[in-house]
Prior knowledge:
This protein has six helices and three strands, in the order E-E-E-H-H-H-H-H-H. It is mostly helical. Strands 1-2-3 form a three-stranded antiparallel beta sheet.
Amino acid sequence: MGVSMQQARRPMAMFDYSDDGQKVIVKIMQHGDKFSVTEKIADEWLEHINREAVGGRYDPSWVGQFRLEYEAFLKGNELPREGTPIRTWGSITREQGTRLIALNITTVEDLAAYPDNGLGTIGLDGRYLRDLAKNSLSAEGSTAKRLAEAEQSIREKDDIIKRMEERLAALEAKEPKRETLTVKKG
């Protein structure tokens, strides 16, 4: 599986155990190609892309990141690629987090989007947890919106100050210099 170093984003790789549970496999998907997933044995694939990186045909930083993700998977500490990880979300208990992760709900965003008909699989607190996730994301969104609005206001004010400084400099350049007369007493 050769990947061009000019590729903008690294492929998505998800580690999992094989059906027989004897080995770790990796499922690789190129961005934008949702229908083509390649499965390889994880150790062999990591060695292959490492050789490709040494030969200059694969981005070495990607290899390092994949290795870290693989080690985290083996330790049971795998974090999701995108979103707020359930594992690090401070709004729930450790038991709730473990239960959600066991159901493959690994991000707050996944939980917020969980369908009504599946809430029972989460437990008696399923609806509460989903609503908590939705409210958390809503609060983050409104905070981000307020921050973006404040940054825009600052940029606008900086532009006004810059224009005023330019106008003042132009006025000072046009104004004749005044000489001050000193009168001696005596």
